Amino acid sequence: MPETSDRKDDHIRIIEEEDVETSGAGFADVDLVHEALPELHRDEIDTTTTLFGHELAVPIVIESMTGGHPNTTKINRALAEAAQETNVAMGVGSQRAGLELDDEELLESYTVVREVAPDACLYGNVGAAQLLEYDLEAVETAVEMIDADAMAIHLNFLQEAVQPEGDVDARGCLAEIERVAEGLSVPVVVKETGNGISRETASRLADVGVDAIDVAGQGGTTWSGIESHRAAAVGADRQEAIGNLFRAWGVPTAISTLEAASVHDQVVASGGVRSGLDVAKAIALGARAGGLAKPFLGPAGRGTDAVVDLIEQLSLELRTAMFVTGSATLSELRSTEYVVLGRTKEYLEQRR
């Protein structure tokens, strides 16, 4: 099995078997102000939102996780079937393997999502570093592979720096992102992979015309930590040490959400989002939706019903938060009162 495909299988195994979770997303420092007289019926609260031009029943994104190895087809099938059933958005993992390898079984790990989710909001995924190699036609091929409604361009340069075989040439990526944003047939979302996006970077991305920003901040799954485990397995001691040193590096998700939302109106908050209450807090901070990855992985292994159960639980938690803040709509939740405490408050004060 080629290197790129094997790496995808390694990632899933490490996430399932090792401690690759970090704290510090910042949501614990955000308190929504309670409304004792909400004057609402909880079950009539409107949780719909628009993302990438699609109306979603609830502002939840099943974040890009996997694809590119036959072992991942079952996972993506369950996730996509659940996205179809509950009308939430879903992304696939990097499509590099699907673009570069001629393997029908491998390709199915991506194409299965549209086959089982004909109406769901699905987005594709390519790396910013790979844009230096791909022309626009290649990115369109990735769109066509899953009949994508949007295309994510992921920023993962810390992860690449830890990988023994990583691509560490980040020169010219912003210009390439602008080229794709201008010419691609579907909206473009730029997403980090666990280290967050600062206000300054979000502003640069807004200036080149990206349609959405997924902050994927520090505080959830650490890809630096994942690659540290991979480096250890092949005896790359220096890379293993680098991965551990930078395990908790980045802009915390709550802060990244606030900063990105100050310069762009379509922000997805991900990175350490672990509940519907976290989604509510993210929306209060300015996000359009909240994204989760690792929490869906275990349920996906058990099947579609388990994924649907988790989405329904998250939805009820979000609806409850809206109820007790007196928010009849997500627009009202976005303007609800909140208080920021602790390290997050200190961080924001220093940034200001």
From TrEMBL:
Its EC number is 5.3.3.2. SUPFAM superfamilies: FMN-linked oxidoreductases (SSF51395). It comes from the Archaea. GO terms for biological process: isoprenoid biosynthetic process. Keywords: Cytoplasm, Flavoprotein, FMN, Isomerase, Isoprene biosynthesis, Magnesium, Metal-binding, NADP. One of its GO terms (molecular function) is oxidoreductase activity. Its main location: cytoplasm. FMN binds at S64, M65, T66, S94, N125, K191, T221, G272, V273, R274, A293, K294. Its cofactor is FMN; NADPH; Mg(2+). It catalyses: isopentenyl diphosphate = dimethylallyl diphosphate. Residues 22-95, 168-336 form the FMN-dependent dehydrogenase domain. Homooctamer. Dimer of tetramers. Belongs to the IPP isomerase type 2 family. This is Isopentenyl-diphosphate delta-isomerase. It comes from Natrarchaeobius chitinivorans. The lineage of its organism: Archaea, Methanobacteriati, Methanobacteriota, Stenosarchaea group, Halobacteria. The gene is fni.
